[in-house]
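The freezer alarm interrupted the setup, so I double-checked each line after restarting. Inputs confirmed:
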Amino acid sequence: MKGPQGQPKRVLVVDDDAHLAEMLQLILQRAGLETKWSATGENAVAAFRSFNPALILLDVMLPGKSGIQVCREIRAESGVPIIMLTARTDTQDVVAGLEAGADDYIVKPFKNAELLARINARLRRTSGTDVSQVTIGDLSINAQSHTVCRGGEQIDLTPLEFDLLLALARRPQQVFTREVLLEDVWGYRHAGDTRLVNVHVQRLRAKVELDPERPCIVVTVRGIGYRAGAPATDE
Amino acid sequence: MNEQAPTILELMPDQLQRVLTAPARLWRSSLSLRVMVTILAVAGVLMAVGGAFILDYDSVDDIRDAVFVVFISALVLIAIVSLAIVRQVILELRRVSSVAAGVARGDLNRRLKVSGSDDLAMLAASVNAMAATLSGQIAKLEEASEMQRRFVSDVSHELRTPLTTVKMASELLEDEQDQFDEVTQRAVSLLHTEIERFEVLLNDLLEMSRFDAGAATLTLETTDLVSVVRAEIEQMMPLAIAQETPLILHAKGQVMAQFDVRRVQRILRNLITNALDYGEHRSIVVQVAGNDHAVAIRVRDHGQGFEPEQAERVFARFWRGDPSRKRNFGGNGLGLAICKEDAMLHGGWLEAWSLPGVGAVFRLTLPTDPSVGLMESPLPLRPPGMVWREDEIKSDGRGNLRVSKGAWNQDGTKFEDAT
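Predicted 3D structure, all chains:
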């Protein structure tokens, strides 16, 4: 996987287990990525600032500062894709990670191919091929510059939130089930955890809706999923 | 402790205090002393009254009247006194018995107030001591079992990290397989399979520890059981085709019930996989039926089966049928135990029936509403129309005919059923 200038994309691995971290790096390097390892939560934020990765693999259970805390701190200053590594599927763990701002999570032990597919989905940006300018509600989205504006004012979204919004906006007539969104946005080829969609729709709404209680950009279709709000009529 | 002014008694030296309060303490502490003193007092009063009458007599009749009155009064008084005493004892016993019953019900914090030092007080003290010991033992046991559950759960989690590393390494090797010689290739493939097996076992252990900890919860949905079963059978079909085993569904229309889809799918997957493993390529029939109270799934194979006595034991953890049987199948011995827990979590049943050579039947019965208990299943466990015979010797006139133990149809032909 190469960046825009041809140099390999960078992934920061945060895990306290040295052997697992080494193995992860072997797999990632084999896939053409550049890696750096941080063994503690305390060092992770500094490593993120100096290494400037395109993606972070973050273990939830770290000694000292937890993965959840690290995630929150990084999210406060960047929208960089974060994939959590967790040993448990227990609800609280996963939900806490997602609410701290993680884009996705993967449960140990995982298949290499599965890990790479999720990483690819987060690194591959949906760039404008067919339409570069789309509207959703009263927002205008520029798929080339990855920006969202409401009346000339830019709204800051993480890459994942942007992808989610763009996926809905590209096909305004379609109602998306959570499963379809998991496939389109998160790159899941098999059934995934629909909570991912719920949590990120909430986060997206908090940023783009004028009134998140009564959303009109990302509209819930009861019993099915979500669809884009109708484009605003010209005032 | 409290701020009350000391009484004169409390100001006295300890020794003197004890001597002076001794009678009062004795009175409070001993029931027999109270009884004796009361009877003596009553007898004294009666003798005094009787004496007064007799001293004042005019004739023999008067004496007789006096004796009669004293006698009757004595009877009445004794009756009243004994009633009072018996009542006191009975009330005390009732108190003890109610607390003992409470303790027996599991309310281990209940204790009796102990006053005095008579037999009743000793009884109360013993009951208290018993309850205290019991609650101590139970707390100890709970702690031990909680520790054991935590241990299983921690071990399962701790094993995940090294397992992840090993699994990644084995997949990396697998990707490079074509560069290895034949022996190494086989070794890598064995490594891979065994890691998968290890992972399944670890997940099952973790699931079991969730059941043991009471941490398993139902996610109920009102759904059509037939469509869930059909979807699962479609998923299993490639495996059935690969094993050359016919897999047949018998179900009509919809069978609606409230259940945890994920758990029911897991039960089905286990039952069908087992049937494929042990069914010896003969047909497997899955039936679904329901009524107002219950729904059922029945998975029937026509394989080697097992002894009827083992029908309960197949659900035991790490149970293996015939120890000499080759272990070439995937199961780790926790599959059916987990299924049983899944069924019980719904307030349902998971039962087995089998005969060697005839095959095995597994039946899952779930209440349509998990808050209501089960009475019966809409599907039979045993194949209908079957007669079970022990060994017997029949005479047909020309000689003895041995009819061997086994399953027979009612018309006397050897039992072979298609359902």
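Quick read of the result. Residues 250 and 287 of chain B are 5 Å apart (CA to CA).
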